[in-house]
Design goal:
Helix 7 packs across helix 9. The protein has 253 residues and is of the alpha/beta class. Strand 4, helix 7 and strand 5 form a beta-alpha-beta unit. It has a seven-stranded mixed β-sheet, with helices on both faces.
């Protein structure tokens, strides 16, 4: 599941029968509700559909940061704010963006209940409201395909410091649970939570200025799959051309 429903299935659905297109419209509508008007159910739903593993999968992102305390971390699609709590507990300076105002309210209330500041903004991932090269890492857990859109990848690179990492927890797969696991896996597949990912995924990251690695992180009764993209160095001229904002960057809140 993910927290930004701004993803297009039109290319995939263009040649599909009407009933297939209707099914995917209903799936997208359901996710839109979950990330907006029904966002108050998100923590419970994510716990149920993962047999309690969701938070474990989220926390695997921390193990792949490779950064000291006080490093500056941007979370894209922060959802209900759980990873923000984990980042704080790990000693990082945390920031977050999410498009859903419903998620934003929940996350702020959660952080305030823990007596923490909420450095969160409502913004598009493709137009981040931050200067160039200010973050040591960017993380996102279970995002929709917006995360691999070229504009998103270029923005992530722009705000990352040299050699900074973009960490994306893309999936968690249960290895225990028997019949219930099989039922949930079927549900994941028919709602698009198992892809398909674009065949040119590596090329997208390369063109955006990253080297890409897929990692499998063992968890109790499950495995989390993580994309680790490292910002490559470029010649000064290419970097200047790449990092020059092409459009106004601002919060949409």
């Amino acid at each position: 599941m993910s927290k930004d429903n701004r993803t297009s299935l039109e290319p995939y659905l263009a040649d599909k029968p009407p009933l297939v297109r209707l099914w995917w419209w209903l799936v997208m509508f359901g996710f839109r509700l979950l990330y907006n008007e029904m966002a108050w159910t998100y923590d419970l739903v994510s716990w149920l559909v993962s047999l309690g593993q969701w938070r474990t999968w989220q926390r695997t992102a921390l193990a792949h940061l490779g950064l000291p305390a006080k490093a500056r971390i941007l979370e894209i699609a922060f959802g209900t704010g759980n990873l923000q709590l984990d980042l704080f507990a790990a000693g990082y300076q945390r920031f977050g963006v999410d498009l859903s105002p419903f998620m934003g309210r929940i996350a702020r209330h959660k952080l305030h209940r823990h007596h923490l500041k909420a450095p969160l903004a409502r913004a598009y991932a493709q137009v981040l409201p931050f200067p160039n090269q200010v973050f040591d890492a960017v993380v996102s857990t279970f995002p929709a395909p917006f995360i691999i859109e070229p504009d998103t990848l270029h923005e992530a690179r722009r705000v990352l410091k040299p050699d900074g990492r973009l960490i994306i927890v893309v999936n968690g797969v249960l290895t225990g649970g028997g019949v219930l696991r099989d039922v949930l896996e079927t549900a994941y597949r028919i709602t698009g939570q198992r892809g398909p990912w674009p065949a040119e995924l590596g090329e997208r990251f390369q063109e955006a200025g990253f080297t890409l690695e897929m990692r499998a992180h063992p968890c109790p009764y499950s495995i989390a799959y993580i994309l680790v993209a490292t910002r490559r160095h470029r010649a000064a001229e290419a970097t200047a051309a790449q990092d020059t904002p092409g459009k106004q960057r601002q919060s949409v809140e």
